[in-house]
Amino acid sequence: MYVFEYAGEYIAGVCISTYDQDTCCISYLAVEENYQNKGIGTALIKFACDYAKNLNFKKVLLEVDYGNMRAKKLYQELGFLDDEINPQSRIRMIKHLTLFCEGSVK
Questions:
Q1: Which of 44, 46, 52, 69 is the most exposed place for a label (fewest CB within 10 A)?
Q2: What is the DSSP string of 11-49?
Q3: Closest residue by Cα to residue 97 from 42, 39, 54
Q4: Per-residue pLDDT tens for 1-27?
């Protein structure tokens, strides 16, 4: 788990785990409500993708609630594509790192 700290407070976090040999998973991403829409979530997703690429993963997987269109739109803008919809009303999205490597965090 990686956290984003600002003014001595933890305001965001992302959890990255191994899914299989070629794929890692963003299993948790959250930004405190007062700090949303400031690019922090985007930076954390880019960080997670860079982290995965540096560890030679080929794909990053995440799930989003079916009704959370704001998050889904962000993920699509960052290169994630719909992979499947599961019975718990969640959409699995995937990003192929070998095809989409823009937006690196410096």
A1: 69
A2: EEEEEEEEEETTEEEEEEEEE-GGGTTSSHHHHHHHHHH
A3: 54
A4: 899 999 999 999 999 999 999 999 999
Percentage of the chain exceeding pLDDT 70: 89
Cα–Cα dist 70/31, whole Å? 13
> Strands 23-31 and 2-6: what pairing?
unpaired
3-state secondary structure of 73: helix
d(CA 34, CA 27) in angstroms, rounded, equals: 22
Residue range 80-106, pLDDT digits in tens: 998 877 666 788 889 998 644 444 443
Average pLDDT over residues 37-66: 94
Q: Is 93 helix (H, G, I), strand (E, B) or coil?
A: strand
